[in-house]
Fold this protein.
Amino acid sequence: MELTSYVEALRHDLLAAAAAGTEQTRETARLLAAALDPSARLCLVDALSALAAEVTTAWDGGSVEIRMHGREPQVVVTAAESFASPPAPPPPPPPPGADGRADGRADDDVEDGTTSRITLRLPEALKNRAERAATTEGLSVNAWLVRAVAAAVQPAGRHTPQQVIGRRMTGYARS
């Protein structure tokens, strides 16, 4: 979405309003108009973001997001999935040892080569804590979240000796 025409209209209105004043008023308006661009853009993006949040809240299952592309916002609309036919149930887990391993674990529980995309909404404070934790560990937020979810769904008492996320390996070794 191009914001330049809206910012220019605001600048023009400010200069037109100051035209009736003194020379000092017109000069002040000219200086303010020159500094107006970043602030006006930020206010417009804030208003668009608030509108997108309201639409998402009112819309059953869909979402509207404002994403920045350079200095210009982009509106991203995600429609609700059609629930005409229920999804197939997931296959039952294989019995222990069914894949040929003595301990019953699959070769790679976390990364089987496929990925799925989800939308995760977090409170701002929790998102900031996750970003700091990921940065501290030298991971992207996505990689950190994958590791956290994998650890959370791991059966009790089972420890994964190693974990590969992207090009980074973490874990421990036994001697």
DSSP finds four helices and four strands in the chain. The radius of gyration is 26 Å. The longest strand covers residues 63-69. Residues 97-108 have pLDDT under 50 and may be disordered.
